Amino acid sequence: MHNKLLLVYQSIEKIKAQKIDCVFIIDYYIFIYKKNMFEIEKIFSKDYSLRDGTYNCLPEDTKENKIKKQEIETYSNRADNFNEQAMLSLSEELQSVIEPITKLPKDSVVLELAGGDGRFAFYLMNKGYTVIESDIAPGSVQKVKQIAEKNNIKNGIYAVLDAEDLPFKDNSLEAIFMVASLHHLPNPQKALKEVSRVLKNNGLFLILREPASWQYYFFGPVFFILRKLLRKKNKNDFSLADDVTWGFSKRKLNKLLSPHFTDIKIKPVHYLRKIYTNWVVLKTKITKKKHFPNQKIEKILKQIDDKFIAKIPLIKHLAWDFDIYTKKK
Fold first, then answer.
1. Which residue, 47, 63, 88, 220, has most beta carbons within 10 Å?
2. Nearest Cα to 250, choosing from 211, 223, 218?
3. CA torsion, points 311, 314, 319, 324, in degrees to nearest 10?
């Protein structure tokens, strides 16, 4: 989209240089703008308002849901603290996680749900894919769009939407993915049905870094106490969805996905390494100072996880997260 609009602006500058009437310039701009936007808007189920380059596709009743209302507020506010450097880079490990999408034809349209800081979307945009970068939080989407424009990242379409009520026509997208977000949805069954509806036949669906349920049952009381203490200390925004989630087991994921998807692959990820990174996050919240994981330590722990922990009977089933790969039936 941005490549096409750049051509529009360049054309207008050429017209101005030739001193052609301004009214004609405006008409010319509107004509070409609408012509280029049609390819994008034709996949929407109806007309949606476009403001500051972002589509507002939220249903009117979205904020009536307590969890969704809190997510909108929390993640709009948290967008102010997005790390631009982190947004613009994707580790080799995470590149490999998203690799199935990079095997699609370059003219594929990809949707990221609950996109957060947009780092996965930026990676795909830079590879030439058209990516609809979306979130339920307007502040988050706007921040990602600003960073994209600042760094000349093209091929992005930006939309505020509800994953449980997707604004697209049936069979309109080649791939959809979400990262650590399924547990944030009040009604994941409804969202998965919507994902299946808008995907084309055999369209890819990736659910990445989704928390496993065992940790909530085992550490639930600890998580509850820590959340209470940290909120009292920091008085920061919080996610109500994080408070009520119990994560997902392999069995539950299969049960949720099997009505709509096939070729379901659930890969356990993170063991010792996640304990370390969680400690770093906790340390940041306690001290109110930014702390970052040591890359050498992370690398060593990942090797231990992959070569040893993941092969130990019983223990291998206690991964902190899952990466799920599937496609529409």
1. 88
2. 211
3. 80
Q: Which domain holds residue 36?
A: 1-42
The set of residues, in sequence order, having a beta carbon less than 8 Å from that of 257 and lying 6+ positions away, is 192, 264, 324, 326
Cα–Cα distance, 137 to 133 (Å, whole number): 12
The domain tally of the chain equals 2
Range in 4-8, 146-150, 201-205 with the lowest mean pLDDT = 4-8
Mean pLDDT of 120-131: 97
Cα–Cα distance between 94 and 120 in angstroms, integer? 8
Are β-strands 321-328 and 261-269 bridged in parallel, bridged antiparallel, or unpaired? antiparallel
Nearest-CA neighbor of 132 among 53, 47, 70? 53
Q: Can you tell me the distance from the alpha carbon of 313 to that of 70, in angstroms, rounded to the nearest whole number?
A: 40
Q: Name the 3-class secondary structure at 163.
A: coil
Domain check: are 247 and 322 in the same one? yes
Q: In what order do the strands lie in the sheet with 49-51?
A: 49-51, 54-56, 156-160, 130-135, 109-113, 173-179, 199-211, 321-328, 261-269
**11 and 113 in a common domain:** no
What's the rounded Cα separation, in Å, for the pair 310 and 1? 43
Mapped onto helix, strand or coil, the DSSP state of residue 324 is strand
* Phi, psi values for residue 78, rounded to 5°: -65, -20
Q: How far is it, in rounded angstroms, from Cα 84 to Cα 32?
A: 32
Amino acid, res. 302: K
Q: What angle do CA 211, 320, 161 make, to 5 degrees?
A: 20
- Looking at the structure, tell me whether residues 14 and 55 fall in a common domain: no
**Same domain for 202 and 86:** yes
CB neighbourhood size of 26 (10 A): 11
C-alpha radius of gyration, the chain, whole number:
21
User: Does one domain contain both 72 and 184?
Assistant: yes
Q: CATH number, domain at 49? A: 3.40.50.150
Give the mean model confidence (pLDDT) for residues 116-143. 97
